[in-house]
Design brief:
Strand order of the largest sheet: 1-7-6-5-4-3-2
Number of strands: 7
Helix content: 25-40%
Shape: globular
Structural class: alpha+beta
Length: about 150
């Protein structure tokens, strides 16, 4: 079983700055409390093929995650796929950014979750939790980005 969740929100910062912030996955702990630590491999600017290795805590369990950037079109599109082997993975996900006339940015975040093995029984629960928190997740990204990116 697979399923998608998404959220759309606006950030009061220019699209180029928001893209740079989101493309550096090392910022994820600022808005995702489940991310306990993360590194970028190689430690160079994010590009197609860059991998973000993280330790996350889901449902009380720590797991290792590896997310590979699969597409990048600055400043409007970022895509990824999880390459780690876990019970539930993000088969594909991404950010779509749209510049707004007043120097703000509309962001659409989406992830498609997929269960593997016993995870096929758990993916429904993971999707339900992710969908329930989608609006809150968008709000946390907005707050973190507006704090991290200086206003112009």
């Amino acid at each position: 079983m697979t399923g998608q969740f998404e959220t759309t929100f606006e950030i009061d910062r220019p699209v180029e700055d928001v893209f740079a912030y989101l493309a550096d996955g090392r910022n994820d702990p600022q808005f995702s409390p489940r991310v306990l630590g993360i590194e970028r491999v190689p430690d160079t600017p994010t590009a197609v093929g860059t991998v973000f290795r993280s330790t996350v805590k889901d449902a009380g369990m720590k797991t290792g995650r590896e997310i590979r950037v699969t597409a990048l079109q600055a400043p409007v599109k970022l895509r990824w796929a999880e390459v780690s082997k876990n019970l539930v993975t993000a088969r594909e996900g991404g950010y779509d950014l749209e510049p707004l006339a007043d120097g703000r940015t509309r962001v659409r975040f989406h992830n498609t979750l997929e269960g593997h093995g016993v995870g096929k029984l758990l993916v429904g629960l993971a999707l339900s939790a992710a969908r329930k928190d989608a609006e809150g997740f968008g709000s946390r990204i907005k707050a973190a980005a507006e704090t991290a990116i200086a206003a112009r």
